[in-house]
Design brief:
This protein has two helices and no strands. By secondary structure, the protein is mainly α. The longest helix is centred in the first third of the chain and has 30 residues, at 9-38.
């Protein structure tokens, strides 16, 4: 019959550290969730990430004006 290996102190320490990390992570998530719930939303119709964006083709942010005009003339 096979004998069970003894649980080493290293394995116990690793498992304890993993459990502590999970508890800390759950605590941070709960704090963040509470802060988010208690923080009032900004008043405004637009999402700040999308403010100023117009529908349709957007200009090339890294292209020079001259290069863009040359491409239009060739087409």
């Amino acid at each position: 019959m096979a004998t069970r290996t003894k649980v080493t102190s290293q394995k116990r320490n690793r498992e304890r550290a993993r459990q502590e990390a999970q508890k800390e992570k759950a605590r941070r998530r709960a704090v963040a969730k509470e802060q988010k719930a208690n923080t009032p939303r900004r008043s405004g119709d637009e999402d700040p990430d999308l403010a100023g964006i117009v529908p349709g083709p957007q200009p090339h942010p890294w292209a020079d004006e001259d290069e863009f005009k040359d491409d239009e003339e060739e087409a």
